[in-house]
Design a protein that fits this description.
By secondary structure, the protein is an alpha/beta fold. Helix content is about 35%, strand content about 25%.
Length: about 260
């Protein structure tokens, strides 16, 4: 969040490793929820602050992101991908890539970030320097390819990578420690990665969240953002291989790790 932004971000841990997010605008009094993995922790976070939901933003159709939507919606506006309307809770606003919506007084840009699912979207609030990526770009990782192709996910990674460096990546799960072990196995001589992993290990030992993360750090350390990086290609012995094939190889190694 920038110094001038009236927006406050609250991370709400749900289930075993999911995150939901609350975005509250202190000037307008509005509150948006991004994904609804579980009802009780979200209700508790709202009640503790005296906030009521004005909007619910849905990233994709998996149950661990939508299970609580109908119980929490009340009079809130529910926003999700038009492409996935048939498999999401009832939408009040169906959106697609390139749409701009005002949420909590924040101009919010819709990005199609298919790959994990086809129809997965991200919500970018540039004035608050926030992007909600769920199971597309994650801290040191990316979502598994359940529906999309490596080419789709690589395209999604490049879209997210093009956002401003200071953007906070609000992703959907606490998978960072496992992602770090994989990244270290690929790229053990990357000093930025090694120092980041020290921080992750310390944070987890102290019971702290590693989400959100900062895009500038992801760009230097997340192997899924570096499929076109000559240094990573060289480390993998894939110097002459196309970017998308390198991305596919990194993703398939992670699946087997
Ligand atoms: Zn998912
Ligand atoms: Fe998920």
């Amino acid at each position: 969040m920038t110094k001038t932004s009236p927006v406050e971000l609250v991370v709400v841990p749900c289930r075993t490793d999911n995150y939901a997010f609350l975005v509250h605008n202190h000037e307008t009094g509005q509150t948006a929820l991004v994904d609804a993995p579980e009802v009780a922790p979200i209700q508790a976070a709202l009640a503790a602050r005296g906030w009521q939901l004005s909007d619910i933003l849905i990233t994709h159709h998996h149950d661990d992101h939508i299970a609580g939507v109908d119980a929490l919606r009340g009079s809130a506006r529910v926003i999700g991908a038009a492409a996935d309307a048939h498999r999401l809770p009832a939408l009040d606003l169906a959106v697609a890539e390139g749409d701009m919506v005002t949420v909590c007084g924040q101009m919010t840009q819709i990005l199609d970030v298919s790959g994990h699912t086809v129809g997965h979207i991200a919500f970018h609030m540039p004035d608050a320097a926030l992007v909600f990526t769920a199971d597309s770009l994650m801290a040191l990782g990316c979502g598994r390819l359940f529906e999309g192709t490596p080419a789709q996910m690589w395209d999604s990674m490049q879209k997210l990578r093009a956002l401003p460096d200071e953007t906070l990546i609000c992703s959907g799960h606490e998978y960072t420690a496992a992602n770090a072990r994989f990244a270290a196995s690929l790229d053990p001589d990357n000093p930025d990665l090694m120092s980041r992993i020290e921080g992750i290990t310390a944070a987890r030992a102290a019971g702290q969240f590693t989400v959100p993360s900062i895009l500038s750090v992801e760009k230097r350390t997340n192997p899924f953002l570096r499929a076109d990086d000559p240094e990573l290609k060289a480390v993998l012995g894939m110097a002459d291989i196309s970017d998308v094939d390198v991305f596919a190889e990194v993703r398939s190694r992670k699946d087997k790790f």
